[in-house]
């Protein structure tokens, strides 16, 4: 009798303990690493049992909307603004709130006001519906229905450094994308990197808008890597900022198994339809990255700005690249690329960023690729004497250029691994020995003088037409497998996705690029999007590098470097 009583008590204790454990699992993260309130939490038991129609439901999961490092510094207007808010609340809002039953009505009123405010009625965005575009992408109401019907998830990344002049336009674009895809199909990661203008105030506005519309986000403010501008190495800062902006992407995958279909990097101002167009190009080509075109106003004309990061498939810079260039003087120098550009068609490149661009995380971030920079730069805050570097030393260029080369390397590695899986090591070794190719890699060098126009253009890297340097040629010979034998990284530029900046006439640029009629060259359907043939990486590329610290405007030099995927594979495999 006593034994049965004790057994019943033990059973009750066991049930109570089990229930407590289940409740704790259901209401807390399964990952102990999510101790910070802004971090993404792992799945609880109730997530699996109850489920949700949307994995990015910010109203169900509060951690999907977070603010980190808010700028609380006061200024001359802080008291005035605070008093005005308090007065508005006390006189106009508080008297009419009589209970929770009116809260939903008040919220809906605010949401409607936001949509009206940010419905592309004003700022640069007001011109988007009226801009000339080839293929009638603005005039066809259902041009993107097939894309919108797939219910993909999109990650929007924005890095801001004292760029308040287009943040409101970017917010308007995000609202429009949310209206097309649905609020729970987007996650917005907004990084304010040590801004000194009104960006802090505008991120407060962004936080309010995204919260009320139910769009998941993380808005984060971080200080500069160094307080001394002379010690700041911009490519390292650039890599640091982008990797921070991608942290929610990785947390959502590691802790909740949420995969995004594409990452949209917003830079400058780009119209919503242009972004949708670029996503469609990315989807049709299964591309690792598709970039728009980045234009700045320079000496009275529009010039392709981003030669700091963009190279055509021959590895050349986009020199003499005006929006009004004739068909025989177009930005890409390769024959296929120039032909496609003249028809406003996407063309293959070795590397790009050039404004707003779309990245496939399945081919990059989820493969372990992140942004990085060279490490052997010279710190001018310690000494002004620039050390000598070998002619074939690694290129100290932008973090995006490193990212492009990592994409090419990753694709080559995948091809080699697949070949290993289908062939024995011995057969592969014999094949490589039989196909040993002796090739001459021409290493063109340009004297390491300061680029006299390195700071022209919105991205500080445009160059006047007359300032093409004379190349000093030298050659080296070494054994290597040609880059053309390796699998191609699918990197494209979509010339119809135009990015502009403050003071640039988006309307006039569209007329320069596409003409008054927006001709379509008789192309329809997938033919205008899909590339049938993909080139291998070039055997050399123009290296525009920043060899020393000094921030974004530090001196850049140029040389042409040999490029060997085979040697990189030997180094990393």
UniProtKB/TrEMBL annotation:
Keywords: Glycosyltransferase, Signal, Transferase. The keyword Transmembrane does not apply. It holds the Pfam family CAP59_mtransfer. The keyword Phosphoprotein does not apply. Residues 1-28 form the signal peptide. It comes from the Eukaryota. Residues 316-339 are annotated as: Disordered. GO terms for molecular function: glycosyltransferase activity. Residues 317-326 have a biased composition (Polar residues). This is Cryptococcal mannosyltransferase 1-domain-containing protein. The lineage of its organism: Eukaryota, Fungi, Dikarya, Basidiomycota, Agaricomycotina.
């Amino acid at each position: 009798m006593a034994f049965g009583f004790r057994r019943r008590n033990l059973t009750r204790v066991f049930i109570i303990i089990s229930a407590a454990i289940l409740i704790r699992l259901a209401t807390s993260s399964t990952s102990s690493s999510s101790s910070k309130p802004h971090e993404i939490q792992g799945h609880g038991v109730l997530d699996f049992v109850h489920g949700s129609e949307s994995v990015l439901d910010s109203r169900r999961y509060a951690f999907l909307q977070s603010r980190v490092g808010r700028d609380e510094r006061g200024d001359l207007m802080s008291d005035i603004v605070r008093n005005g808010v308090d007065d508005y609340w006390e006189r106009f809002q508080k008297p009419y709130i009589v209970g929770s039953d009116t809260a939903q009505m008040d919220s809906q009123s605010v949401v409607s006001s936001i949509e009206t405010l940010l419905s592309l009625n004003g700022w640069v965005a007001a011109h988007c519906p009226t801009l000339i575009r080839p293929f009638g992408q603005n005039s066809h109401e259902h041009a993107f229905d097939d894309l919108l019907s797939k219910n993909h998830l999109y990650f929007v990344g924005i890095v801001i450094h004292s760029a308040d002049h287009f943040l409101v336009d970017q917010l308007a674009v995000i609202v429009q994308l949310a209206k097309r895809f649905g609020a729970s199909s987007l996650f917005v990661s907004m990084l304010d990197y040590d801004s000194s203008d009104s960006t802090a105030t505008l991120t407060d506005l962004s936080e309010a808008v995204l919260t009320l519309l139910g769009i998941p986000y993380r808005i984060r403010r971080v200080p500069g890597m160094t307080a001394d501008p002379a010690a700041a190495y911009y490519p390292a800062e650039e890599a640091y900022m982008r990797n921070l902006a991608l942290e929610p992407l990785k947390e959502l995958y590691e802790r909740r198994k949420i995969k995004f279909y594409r990452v949209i990097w917003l830079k400058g101002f780009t119209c919503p339809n242009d972004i949708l167009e670029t996503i469609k190009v990315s989807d049709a080509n299964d591309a690792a990255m598709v970039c728009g075109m980045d234009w700045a106003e320079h000496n009275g004309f529009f010039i392709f700005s981003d030669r700091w990061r963009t190279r055509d498939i021959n590895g050349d810079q986009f020199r003499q690249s005006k929006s009004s260039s004739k068909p025989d003087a177009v930005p890409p120098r390769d024959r296929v690329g120039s032909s496609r550009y003249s028809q406003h068609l996407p063309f293959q490149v070795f590397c790009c960023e050039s404004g707003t661009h779309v990245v496939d995380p399945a081919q990059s971030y989820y493969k372990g690729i992140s942004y990085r920079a060279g490490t052997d730069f010279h710190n001018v805050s310690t000494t002004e004497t620039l050390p000598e570097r070998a002619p074939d030393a690694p290129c100290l260029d932008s973090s995006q250029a490193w990212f492009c080369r990592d994409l090419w390397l990753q694709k080559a590695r995948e091809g080699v691994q697949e070949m290993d899986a289908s062939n024995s090591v011995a057969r592969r070794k014999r094949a490589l020995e039989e196909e040993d190719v002796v090739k001459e890699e021409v290493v063109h060098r340009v004297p390491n003088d300061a680029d006299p126009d390195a700071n022209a253009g919105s991205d500080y890297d445009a160059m006047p037409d007359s300032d093409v340097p004379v190349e000093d040629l030298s050659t080296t010979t070494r054994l290597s497998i040609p880059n053309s034998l390796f699998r191609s990284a699918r990197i494209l530029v979509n010339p119809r996705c135009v990015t502009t900046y403050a003071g640039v006439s988006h309307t006039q640029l569209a007329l320069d690029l596409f003409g008054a009629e927006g001709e379509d060259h008789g192309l329809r359907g997938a033919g205008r999007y899909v590339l049938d043939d993909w080139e291998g990486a070039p055997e050399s590329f123009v290296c525009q590098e920043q060899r020393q610290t000094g921030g974004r405007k530090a001196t850049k030099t140029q040389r042409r470097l040999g490029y060997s995927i085979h040697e990189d594979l030997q180094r990393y495999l």
